[in-house]
Amino acid sequence: MIEFRNVSKIYKGVKALDDVSFTVGAGSVTGFLGPNGAGKSTAMRILVGLSRATAGSATLLGRPYAELACPGFHVGTLLDAGAQHPGRTGREILTLGAMMLGLPKSRVDEVLDLVGLTGRESGRTVSGYSLGMRQRLGVGHALLGRPKVLVLDEPVNGLDPQGIRWMRGLLHGLSDSGCSVLLSSHLLHEVEQVADHIVIIGRGRILTQGTVDELNRGQSLEQIFFELTANADRSTT
């Protein structure tokens, strides 16, 4: 499970996050939504120990990321699909990840098959990958250790319709197996297809949260999103 408890973050006098609190339970997918600059990436970076909160706490499975023993077996992350060595092949990148976790080479083949990068694709260097292929590779790297928590920032960015459908099935399967998934995306319709819970953030503050059914009330997620974020913008001007 994932828990944000009263998390605030101040950069040079500006509040990037303001008293953010929400949880992601086991076996659920939470869509983390907001416009650019709303604070989503900052919150995710704090969650996985890449940034420090000014106040509050963010925990995974009841502990801060830095206190997890062998975190790769507990938490899988994809924060930037472009952060991969362009001169290495997809297989090499996953093999190095597996070695660091002490996993057998057979796990690399399993993951390549899972994310659809088998055959020639696995032997191509990342510099020749499309953005969608890099996303698949990044997701595969996150899944190497069979984690129970996934933190994914824009994982469907660059995927074609077939890839989006594949991602949808993957997320459903992971949540059915008990995995907790925090998913940031700008594709509101796709989030509506896979998420159990929604958290909408604007100007660093939680604007609303709840199940998809609780939030809908006769409106689409897109309508709710634009109404709330527009109001948040007006309240700060």
Automatic annotation (TrEMBL):
PANTHER family: ABC TRANSPORTER, ATP-BINDING PROTEIN (PTHR43335). SMART domains: AAA (SM00382). It comes from Microtetraspora glauca. Belongs to the ABC transporter superfamily. GO terms for molecular function: ATP binding. The keyword Transport applies. Pfam families: ABC_tran. This is ATP-binding cassette domain-containing protein. Residues 2-228 form the ABC transporter domain. Keywords: ATP-binding, Nucleotide-binding, Transport. The keyword Transcription regulation does not apply. Gene3D superfamilies: P-loop containing nucleotide triphosphate hydrolases. Signal peptide: none annotated. InterPro entries: AAA+_ATPase (IPR003593), ABC_transporter-like_ATP-bd (IPR003439), P-loop_NTPase (IPR027417).
